[in-house]
Amino acid sequence: MSGRRTAASAALLVLVAALAAACSSASGSDSTAGSASASAAASSGTTAPATVAEAQSQLAPYENPDPIISLPTLSARPPAGKTIDFVTCPLASCLEIQQAAQAAAKKLDWTVHVYNGGVTPATFTSAMNDVVQSPGDAVLGIGILPNSAFAAQLAALKAKHVPWISVASPSPIGDDMIANFSSAPEIALSGKVMADWIIADSGGKAHVAYFWDPSLTQHLPAKNAFVAEMSKLCPGCIVSVQSTSFSTGIGTTDPPQIVSYLQRNPSTDYVVIGIGDATAGVPEALAAAGLAGKVKIVTRLADTINFKDIAAGTEAMGVTEETYEIGWRMIDAAARHFAGDSMACCTTPIGTVHVITKADLPSDLSVPYTVPGYQQDFLKAWHLAS
After folding, report:
1. CATH second-level architecture of 83-182+323-349?
2. pLDDT higher than 70, residue 110
């Protein structure tokens, strides 16, 4: 991964941790940062072959080497000339989504006005204040705050019949927000897929350490789904949930914490790291401690750093979620709203979750994974391609 993406991701984690504390988001941490929790699931029993087979079967849709994005076709080609406001942030993930939305809007002959929402509640609220003075036909943005934190601005948009379309908002869909992408169901699916892969790969005999940062509450669905799936399908497995601090420890304190845990628990054979960026420095730390090849590393939100480690054999599997595709989904949601078409497909869709192993790495390891030709899937739905 480039230094730009690593730094941006680390900065985003700091932002989210601060916002989680400031906004009193959902709790559910297993322990205080830096200390180990009790095992989330532990059993000396065995795992039935049928449940291992079930896990393998459930993996199939996410190991698809050529996934597609399935969208209902709009009732008519979207009208040209719409104006969209996009509230972005200066971090890499925000910019990727923003730029993808701009590219999608251009295909529809729409104009996008970009507002910098910054990385704090104050700067985001200020940007929304600017937007509501003279909004476009729809407002899109990165949902770094719950909707209740800027209810006055959303009320002003609603009074002008301008929809709000968000990414990663902690709020449910309602009158003020017609769509939300990268939401809790997609995050939970990633956790379940990681569990199914480990169950299948280990034959139902895994001893897993799951590292996550409880202050980053938006990742709680992944952790909970992982633990639930392991408990359901792998009673012969052991899962120990470990709390750490991704917001400050990526590449610094996280790798030695993982090494220390493995030295104390030598039977561990799988390490799950809750976000891809937090694997930085872990393979090197394991090698320095003589633990290379002793455990398999699995992660979600896999990115270029993970692809390169998978290629090198120091990481076993990474689950990807959508990035660029989200920008196109946001424009698609606006188009459906303008057409008066059903939003059933697109209020909180589960985006493409994809398993990456050494056997099916993308051809270019220097860019984030995207669904091959995903733009065509949208253009077809918009009557712009056959």
Report:
1. 3-Layer(aba) Sandwich (3.40)
2. yes
